[in-house]
Amino acid sequence: MTSTALWGLFVFVLALVFIYPVSMIVIGAFRDGLPSDNAPFTIQGLIVAFQDPGTWQTMWNSVVLVLVCGTISVAGGGLFAWMAANTNVPGRRMLTGLMALNLFVPPLFHTLGWIMLGNPQNGLLNQLGRALGMTGPLLNIQSWGGLILLLSLGYMPFAYLLMLGAFKNRDQSLDEAAAISGAGTARTFFTITIPSVGPAITGAAILVAVLVFQSFDSPQLIGRQANIFVFSTQIYHYVRDQAPAEYTKAFALSLVLIILVLVLFLAQRWLLRGRSFTTLTGKTSRREPLELGPFRWVLSALIVVFMLLNLVLPLFAMILGSLQPIFGVMSTGLTFDNYVQMLTDPQFRDSLVLTAWLAIVGGFGSIAVALLTTYVTARRTGFIRSYTSFAVWIPWALPGIVLALAYMFAVLYLPAFRSLYGTAFLMTLVLIVATIPVSSRIAEGALAQLSPELEEAARTAGAATPRVLLTIVFRLVIPSFLSGWFLSALFISGNLAVPMLLAPPGLQPVSLTAFEQFLLGNMSQGAALFLIILVAAMAVLGLAALSMRIGTLLRDKPGHAPSPVISGAAQPSVLYPNTTHREEE
Fold it and tell me: Which 8-state DSSP code applies to residue 521?
């Protein structure tokens, strides 16, 4: 009876936290105004929304951006993954570490760095171009080209990490057989290598498409300057820039976005139905790197160019800009005054402290919920498993701005919850929910390494379920828990979309404060804020690495729970566990 009540409470909490707020999108699409206004239900607002040419233009812009950026990101990520796993390209061994490092840079600060480089007026690259005698800007980042460049570069590491395992574990003797049959390197790559990792490529393409649909930072800072509106920025425009707010149009776009995401997942299943992608069998497979001859130096140069564009140049712009009293004015010299101001001004200091607390509490909550729900999905069957998987999947389909809007309506719709509106608790809760898709990937990878036999043996020995979870499951996933906590905290600290709608008056995290500084033209102060957060993140990373080492020692201490039994020759990726040894649909 107690077990039934606990599972009932678990189902209710998932419905309240994940499903109920998202249902507000449907209600909002058929209701014109805030829930507290008691506005009548009608389809007229929905009809007006789709009669607006701006709605269709937004949809077209979003689809174009997804197709172009998704293609570039997946193609580039796949090429780098193939280089790292199957070739003799110099520098290939650094790729995985460098790609992971790119994930530690929040999209907001990556965007701000490129604005400081490519701003038409005082961007560092454009100043260099004028110094060399150019009359026009060398690069206008606030354009279609700039938006495509940033999103494509930003999501390429995700595509790389999703496909790396598939390229590593495929049987390269297939390529050798094609070469013996007379096929060249290019033909083998496109007719043998690429088809053999089809599930990894389509999986990466779906994820990148969803991420581009959800993107807010770059489209808001760059796209709007060029009058380019996409789903997330147009929804924000309807809610915050219009008086009165056009909620029906915002929810109509949100519904379209959810439908498009569902179509993407269904398309993937349709494309892969009935096809087998088994490339690793019980036979010995070839693992020697492919010799590319002089062409390998061209590919090596691509690695250098990618790292310059995606990390080195934006970081250099931030460092230089943070030391300038007036950004872009070289004659003023360099100074640490911006850092002093950020650390001594009460407003900026409070912003830093708030961000630290949000990162610590939110990161812990995100990985804790992810581990619990992932454990239920992995160990249970039937309704509980399907229901939990569906509830946790919901945040994937929603941009942060839509998620924030849904929760805002959810607390205003019921009088009992209205006191939560405009509180730090609501903002923290939505930040946790928005980050769960990331932390769930880490949780899946950690739990995939644990054999259920360990828990079954403990229960056979008489251990109760709470003791099994604490002494076996949690002890063995401590290193992954700590890394997930850190990564979730980092994503929360750089999240802009949720605070844009839900930040209480006087409580602004660093992301929102930096955004406002850039809007006011105080780029140097915004850059100093970024670097303070970056240094703090690196310090936390060092502590996390030390904690993970201590956790591993505790886990492996004699007399404690044994190491997990893992099937296969190697462990799956912790961050992206879908890259397994056997790719099969």
Answer: T
Cα angle 115, 207, 375; round to 5: 120
The model carries a pTM of 0.77
Average the pLDDT over 262-270 and give the result: 70
Helix, coil or strand: residue 31: strand
Alpha helix ranges (H) inside 449-522: 452-460, 465-468, 475-476, 478-493, 497-502, 510-519
Dihedral, 194, 195, 200, 204 alpha carbons, nearest 10: 70
What average pLDDT does range 372-396 have in this prediction? 80
Phi, psi (deg, nearest 5) at residue 157: -60, -35
Give the pLDDT mean for 26-53.
Answer: 74
Find the range with the poorest average confidence among 144-153, 274-283, 435-444, 453-462. 274-283
- The rounded distance, in Å, linking the Cα atoms of 289 and 87 is 4
Termini Cα distance of the chain: 39
With tokens 């789709």, the residue in question is 50
Q: How many CA atoms lie within 13 A of 486 on its CB side?
A: 23
Query: On the CB side of 176, how many CA atoms lie within 13 Å of its CA?
Result: 11
Handedness of CA 40, 43, 46, 47 (dihedral sign): negative
d(CA 82, CA 339): 42
Q: Give the span between the Cα atoms of 11 and 386, in whole angstroms.
A: 11
> Between the CA of residue 128 and those of 39, 321, 330, 497, what are the distances in Å?
56, 15, 12, 33
8 Å CB contact between 431 and 493: no
Q: What pLDDT is attached to residue 83?
A: 87
Distance CA 500, CA 106 (A): 16
pLDDT at 51 over 70: yes
Separation of alpha carbons 445 and 215, rounded Å: 25
Q: Of the given ranges (78-82, 124-128, 238-242), which has the lowest mean pLDDT?
A: 238-242
Name the region of 414 (left: φ>0; alpha: ψ -120 to 50; beta: rest): beta
CA distance 67 to 572: 29
- The DSSP symbol for 37 reads G
Residue 472 CB contacts under 8 Å (≥ 6 apart), including other chains: 454, 455, 458, 561
In DSSP terms, 290 is beta-bridged to: 87
